[in-house]
Amino acid sequence: MDASHALFERLVAEHERDVLRVARAIVRDAHLGADVAQEAFLRLWRALQASAPPARPGAWLRTATISAALDAERREQARPRSELSAEPASASAGDPAAEAELARRYERALATLSEGQRTVFLLKHESGLSLAEVAEALHLALPTVKTQFARACSKLQQGLRPFRS
Amino acid sequence: MDHENFRELLCLRLYGEADETERRTLDEHLSGCADCRVYALELEQGLGVLPRRRDARDDLPAGWRERLRASVPAPRRRVRISAFVAGLAAGIALAWILRVPPRALAPAATSIEASRVVEVAGLPPFVPRADAPPAATVRGPLTRLAELRRR
Questions:
Q1: Which member of A10, A28, A60, B142 has the lowest number of beta carbons within 10 Å of its beta carbon?
Q2: Which residue of A has its CA nearest to B60?
Q3: Considering only CA atoms, which of B76, B9, B64 is closest in space to residue A149?
Q4: Tell me: the pLDDT tens digits for B89-134?
C-alpha cells in the first residue's frame, strides 16, 4: 500500500463516525447520509492526490461533509423524507403515537427554518458540535452562528408550542 | 438589549453556548422580567423533548468501508501497470543496445570467406609488397578534401 492510501485509510478510520453523524444530521436520512459521508471522503481523496494533506483533517472533513450534505439536500428536496421522521424520538420514551406526532412536528418546524438556521441548529443539536466548531466548518463568524442558532431555537419553540399545549 | 435579544441568549444558555458575560447579563434581566422567565421555562420544555439521534446514528452501514475503498483507485493495480510499462521500456532499450547492424556483418563475413578461400586453395599467405605505400599514406576522403582546399 502506498503512502497516500495508507494516510487515507488512517483518516477514514479516525473520522468516519464523525463524518457520518454530521452527514446524517443534515440530510436526516440514514442511507443518504452514508452516501454523503462517502462523497466527503472521496473529496478528501481527491484533495490528497492534488496537494499536501490538510493541516487539520477533522475540520477539513467537517466542512466537506456539510458542503456535500447541503448539495445532496438540494438535490433531494423534492423527495419525501419519511424514514427518519418516522423513527421514534430517543429523548422521549413513552406513547409511540405521541412520539411519532412529535417527530412529525419537529420535521415540519425544521422545514420553516432558513437553510443557514437549519444547518447550524442540526449541527449543534444532533451532531453535538460546538457553535465555534460550526462557525469554523461553515467559515462564518461565531456571533453570526450564535444569532442563527438562537433564531432557529425560537422558531422551533414556536412551531412545537401547539404540540405541547 | 430588548426582550428578543434576551430570548436569543436563553437559547444559547440552554445549549451551554452562552459565555460568562452573556450569562450574567441574562440573569440580571430574568430577575426583573416575568415574561422572559416564562419564556425560559417554555423553551426548556419545548426544546428539551426534541429528538436527538446522535447515539444511534453514527453506526456504519454494512459494507460502507468496502464501497468507499472500491471507489478509490486501488494502489496495487497502479503498481502493476507501472511495472509493466517499466519492463516494456527496459526490453525495448535492451533490444536497441544489443541490436546487430546489418552492415557490420557483411565485412566480417567477407573477411572470413576470403581467408577460408586462401586456406582451401592452399595459397601462400598474404605478404605486402615492398614498394607498397605505407599505411600512413593511405588517405581517406576527408584528408583528400583538406588537401584540395589547401591547394
A1: B142
A2: A17
A3: B9
A4: 888 988 888 876 655 555 555 555 666 766 777 777 667 677 766 6
- Cβ <8 Å between A128 and B72: no
Which chain B positions have a beta carbon within 8 Å of A5's beta carbon?
72, 75
Chain-centroid distance of CA A27 in Å reads 6
Is A28:A79 a contact under the CB 8 Å cutoff? no
Q: Which of A80, A82, A102, A81 is nearest to A90 (CA)?
A: A102
- As a whole number of angstroms, the distance between CA A23 and CA A25 comes to 5
Q: Residue B59 carries which side chain, given as an amino acid letter? A: D
3-state secondary structure of B15: coil
- Cβ contact A12:B65 at 8 Å: yes
Residues contacting residue B132 through CB under 8 Å, at least 6 positions apart: none
Give A55 to chain B, closest Cα distance, Å.
22
Contact A90 B56 (CB under 8 A): yes
Number of CB atoms found within 10 A of residue A119's CB: 23
Nearest to A91 among B8, B52, B64 (CB): B52
- Collect all residues of chain A within an 8 Å Cβ-Cβ radius of residue B70: none
What's this model's pTM, rounded to 2 decimal places? 0.66
pLDDT digit string (tens) for B37-91?
998 888 888 887 776 655 445 677 888 888 888 888 876 555 566 777 888 888 8
